[in-house]
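Design job #97: recover the sequence.
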């Protein structure tokens, strides 16, 4: 298995040292860099594009939660773990879909269990798959999408996924077609038919007729796999419950 590319961020150098020792003991992780404040973390994130970020909540410049919101807008599949001395931030961690929330001073076995789950998630994404059967609805309406290169007309039944990506809104259609628009996800959601397109996450809208399976992902989220593309989407646990109501 390839090493999991990791960043750590904490304004306490002793805590960063503890994090590094735990990562070393867990094995399977490559520490790319470490940050002592929120702004430094975001700079390092843009430079290294890690798979995993372990960060304190209370940091100078930008808090961990503020950083998580920016990171999620750049790549919502980044695995994020909060390490903090205060449980009052757990609700904020839930809002940004953190993989886990470790309370300082955390026990070694607790941290190692979390890192083990991270490795399982990234190395075995096909476990515990929930299969889905399409309701075979076909919608031949079209969607106009305005972008820098002009206006595109997309067949809605061929549109698979809409997501936030590098602070832009990107649409993916059959044949790996990719379209970038200046519209927000919410603006597109308002124009898409509700019986076919589902807002699964703050960063994703999916075509429910193209769902192939759903896989557990972290503590509060799942991965949606779609037909006809290697791209996938995230869905929160509460939205998962809502989605299940649409399928008999």
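Job complete. Output follows.
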């Amino acid at each position: 298995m390839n090493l999991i590319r990791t960043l750590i961020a904490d304004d306490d150098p002793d805590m960063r040292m503890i994090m590094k020792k735990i990562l070393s003991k867990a094995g399977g992780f490559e520490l790319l860099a470490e940050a002592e404040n929120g702004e430094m973390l975001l700079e390092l994130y843009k430079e290294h594009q890690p798979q995993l970020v372990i960060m304190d909540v209370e940091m100078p410049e930008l808090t961990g939660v503020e950083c998580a919101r920016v990171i999620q807008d750049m790549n919502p599949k980044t695995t994020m773990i909060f390490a903090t001395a205060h449980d009052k931030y757990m609700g904020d961690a839930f809002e940004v879909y953190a993989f886990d929330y470790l309370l300082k001073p955390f026990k070694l076995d607790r941290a190692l269990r979390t890192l083990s789950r991270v490795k399982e998630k990234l190395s075995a994404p096909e476990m515990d798959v929930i299969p889905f059967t399409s309701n075979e609805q076909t919608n031949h309406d079209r969607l106009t999408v305005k972008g820098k290169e002009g206006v595109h007309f997309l067949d809605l039944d061929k549109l698979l996924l809409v997501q936030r990506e590098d602070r832009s809104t990107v649409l993916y259609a059959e044949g790996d077609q990719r379209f970038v628009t200046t519209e927000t996800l919410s603006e597109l959601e308002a124009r898409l038919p509700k019986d076919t397109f589902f807002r699964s996450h703050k960063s994703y809208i999916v075509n429910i007729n193209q769902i192939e399976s759903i896989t557990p992902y972290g503590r509060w989220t799942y991965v949606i796999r779609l037909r006809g593309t290697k791209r996938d989407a995230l869905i929160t646990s509460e939205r998962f419950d809502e989605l299940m109501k649409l399928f008999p």
